[in-house]
User: What shape does this take?
Amino acid sequence: MKVTEQDVAYVADLANLELTEDERRSMLRDLNSILDYVDRLNELDTSNVPPMAQVSDRYGVDEAKQGSERFTYASREDVLEGLRKSLPHNEALANAPDPDENYFRVPKVIER
Amino acid sequence: MNPVSLTIDGARSAVQERKATAVALAEAHYTRIQKEDGQIGAFLTLSKERAMQQADRIDRMIAEGKPLPALAGVPVGIKDVMSTRGVRTTAGSKILEKYVPPYDCTAVARLEAAGAVVLGKMNCDEFAMGSSNENSGYGPVRNPRDLTRVPGGSSGGSAAAVAADMAVFTLGSDTGGSVRQPASFCGVVGLMPTYGRVSRYGLIAFASSLDHIGPLTKTVKDAAIVLQTIAGRDPMDTTSADVPVPDYVAELDKPIRGLKLGVAKEYFGEGLDEEIRAAVENAIEKLKGLGCEIVPVSLPHTPYAIPTYYLIATAEASSNLARYDGVRYSHRALGVKTLSEMYRRSRDEGFGPEVKRRIMLGTYALSAGYYDAYYLKAQKVRTLLTRDFDSAFAKVDAIVTPTSPTAAFRLGEKSNDPLSMYLADIYTVTADLAGIPGISVPCGETREKLPIGLQILGKHFDEGTILRVAHAFERAA
Assistant: This one.
């Protein structure tokens, strides 16, 4: 087994999940079964292979240009009201579970 | 004229020639939805007010004799991962049960600007994570061909609605096969365009380097018409490509004689259902009969696609889904004392089991000590998979494969085994990883009358060729 109960607790903590006892048990089983399966990637020698994070750094761009030069078409003027106007307060807060007049309210962060 | 069996062309000409008003077309579809959708479950939200306003606008344009846009009066359903201003958008998740977006997804805005009438929002797997639509927070969708079976996923509602004539066409999203696989399960056409061809602005993010918006339609021509409308650079999405949009409909009628079609043995190996194999081989023979040259190609890294996909997609998802914190617009747990407790309990209550599983896997793959072994390794194999396609496309114009190794399976059949569910995407994830376009077109039925899909993969930004091959096949079938 690659993943232990401690790992599940640690990763849940990183992911801001609590998980019930039952969920932790099934997570332990499922993560181990999936990680066993993905282990087959180690059959491949990738020591000289560059990683690919995006498709758009290879296609639909001017291949003659390098680095950020390739994406100059994607840049825009840095103006206050550019492509999209800022949302009015009431719209920005409309979906908030606990809005104040101008703010998102959350439980107390700092104990004093 | 049956108002609910029309194609896009049919619906638009009915409106143009005043055989039906846009309002009447929309109403006919709502009547159909009311009658059929109780047992199918394809729609999550109906947007009647918005639909009727738009239909009314189209009818006034006709009365005033104005020229009509390409999708005038055509009723459409939108997968619920695309934001619609003023219309609830849940992504199939309880965590967004009450979310009403303040803006429109670019693809939806372009459809409406072209005259389409948005009927409502389609059920899907939660955050598009699934291959059967059983992971929706709002109940499963059933396959209109056989209600005991799944419609595929994650765009299950989008595929089922088109198959059951509840919408002329729908939009879906494809991250690992979520447009093409449900299209094949329900017997409709599903197109995933090249990565960057269609703006992702307003698409709720699952895995940003893999997410694509694409249409599900009754015909290949309809898919070309929709792509024409939604494709093209959008300054709101920096990954949307600055590549000119050709006339896809004009491409359809170019001859396919002489085109080289690749067939890769890696897509016909273990796990492929015999009936599917027979139907796809038969389809390949038919394409040969239409004058295409069939060329064997090799895509040797295909067996590594699913593990690569599940590491990259979950890593990106774990980052993208961090935004659901219960502060600004998602579900918040009640009775919590601290901020940290609020985050945890809200996410625990709001996310379903598959979403939690993927967040956990992705977080693990990105965590200190495992990043190189899992995430970076997967990114390198992604390069190898993409190079496979580069070499194959140096020899052929398109590649033909089955869309899915099986026809639609039964509800519950795979829901307890995540890994077996992941393998349902074995022939579709490769195109998402490489960013190439793919289309699924019906190519027959099993003995149990379940639809089978033929997948045609193309070069980057060469949707024209795969649409042309699919169109010729559809007409000959």
